[in-house]
Amino acid sequence: MTSAVEPITAPVGGSISGGGRSRTPGRSVQEIVFPTREQYFEVVRTYRDDGFEMCADLCGVDYLTHLGRTLPDGVPHDRFEVVVNLLSLSAARRVRVRVPIPESDPTVASIFDLYPGTEAMEREAFDLLGIVFLGHPDLTRILLPEDWEGHPLRKDYGVGRVPVQFKDAPGPR
Amino acid sequence: MSESDATPPAGEADDTDAPEPADRSAAHVDTLLAPPLSGDDFLSANPDGEVAGLVAETSEGRQEMFRRGTTDPGQLRREVGAVLRLPEGVVVDPSNIDVEQSDDDTMIINMGPQHPSTHGVLRLMFELDGETVLRTKPVIGYLHTGMEKTAEELTYVQGSTNVTRMDYLSPLHNELVLSLAVEELLGIELPPRAEWIRMLLTELNRVSSHLMWMATNGMDLGSTSMMIYGFREREMVLAFFEKTTGLRMNHNFIRPGGTAADLPDGWEDDVTVICDTVLPRTDEYDELLTGQPLFRQRTESIGRLSAEEALALSLTGPILRSTGVPWDLRRSMPYLRYDEVDFDVIVGTYGDNFDRYSVRLNEIRESIRIIRQVVEKMPAGDYRVQDKKVTPPPRARIDESMEALIHHFKVFTEGFKVPEGEVYTAIESPRGELGCYLVSDGGSKPYRMHIRGPSFVNLQGMPLMMRGGLLADAVAVCSSIDPVMGEVDR
Fold it and tell me: For chain A, what is the domain count?
């Protein structure tokens, strides 16, 4: 992080298991970071330089119907979140980076240049949630057909809109 | 005197084998992680300067075409990556791009999605120069059924029925990772027996999954006997699963709060028979495959990958271990009771197909070692947590107690509520790190469930492993990744 404001680090209502013995409740030390979109890339870069060799997972969450989720002070209750799980093999440690992303402009920097392994994961988040990763080399749909409309994991994506076609069901309108 | 005698040969040796493996992999990673090239870098390397744009009508619509020499690096990177995939840094390395060569020399062919060697519905696009594979792009999604969306409509009780169908070769691991995540959010502690039962079943599942891999890998490489043997031994494990859980696959046995039932009577004998049969048979596989010159020629130094490349591409499991990184979540970040059993983490050296084969073969032996210890250490006690909110009452109680009936009804209709929060749990599945990111809004259904499928991520290593190899080896490489398409597409 150069001149950017320090990201908010807080353990909130969740934990990372696998870092400790999951049978002890209350458990493993959790490390969650909430950078802003602008800080995101640099924060991840700092972690990579700190010895987090692998980006284990990247996914998006749509908080449309749960906007009031528990967040530390100063973190905006935006609709989308990109969640990145970084893994340090040398220290056997995980850190979770949660980036709030507003509905009006669902874009965020791609961390492909830091971790080439996020290629497929970012495409998946784009495909299913419509979050655009700027700088991704090939941001196309990965699981759904290319001409698919909409992003199914969004909370306002209709579920079960297509009527099941039984013999006497009304035809398509 | 002696020094001057000694130095020249050493210097000579340095000159002759200049591309030393360690150096090469380091250089490779530099290119892998290199920052994007600036336009000048590329233009100075290719001072053609000819601007030509033509539009061609292709089967996929209008496509603008440029001569390679005039394409700017950003576009080249995009085009090269978009059409066929390699880690972009490797592609953009100017020394790797032959601008003189016209596209006519290469051929793009499709393999799959119905090809039997792709282990499901994986489609591969190859760019071939003769028989040499240049670039590859795995195309996935043919088995996508929206399981993550489905999970949001199912309660936590029903959730394990859903996830168990993802990685259908190791269903119990899927159930385990979801259960661990739910239990972490609930903050409940399991009785010891439940954890040991889970360990027993998941290790047996690892054996059956690796046996299945040995079978299909043998078939892909032309050893049909291995296929028969692998299926034969796997059948024993599946028979035990059927006896325990009622089903051969998709068990829905490991559930939030414990397991669905206790182990059947006489399970120790069954498990011991499985161990005593499979272990000596791994030696037979050794004899059949490991020492076989044909098998070795088809696996050794095929699909090589360095540790740095594997880490950069987020590859886990036997693929990462075959490159020499001793990373196994059972050892490094123990869950269940893995810190109380004794086992070795198997690592390879070269990261080629043969190493991946031997890592898996020896993991069968290690799993059997763990299973034997579990049989010895299995404690008595309850197989699920006695929390009326989470686990249904025993069947017998329902007939005599109204409260039990109500609880039973509520658990299976409404499910139980899970406190608000989010959690990431990860376990070591036979294919690598199987993670579950679970978000709860305080209701009885997950707000969001994301599964980090190891096969999905491991597929990214395929283009790099296949690069420069022969098309005939592509099948071997694909097989050695061990992708399960149900998990890739989810």
Answer: 1
Burial class (CB in 10 A: 0-12, 13-18, 19+), B6: exposed
Q: Which of A21, A112, A140 sits opposite B339 (nearest CB)?
A: A21
3-state helix, strand, coil in chain B (%, to 5): 55, 15, 35
Question: Is B146 near chain A, with CB under 8 Å?
Answer: yes
pLDDT one-digit tens code per residue, A10-45: 544 344 433 333 333 334 556 888 898 888 999 999
Measured between beta carbons, the chain B residues lying within 8 angstroms of A24 are 189
| Partner A contacted by B188 (CB < 8 A) | yes
Counting one residue from chain A and one from chain B, the pairs whose CB atoms sit within 8 A come to: 160
Question: Cβ distance A10 to A31 under 8 Å?
Answer: no
Are residues B141 and A143, on separate chains, in Cβ contact within 8 Å? yes
* Assembly ipTM: 0.81
Q: Which residue range forms the structural domain that includes residue B238?
A: 147-489
pLDDT in tens, B159-202: 889 999 998 899 999 999 999 999 888 888 889 999 999 999 99
Strand B258-259 vs strand A54-62: parallel, antiparallel, or unpaired? unpaired
- Residue B471 placed within a domain: yes
Residue A87 structural domain = 8-16+30-134
Model confidence over B349-400: pLDDT tens digits? 888 899 999 999 999 999 999 999 999 999 998 888 888 788 888 878 888 8
Residue A114 falls inside a structural domain: yes
Q: B434 in contact with A at a CB cutoff of 8 Å?
A: no
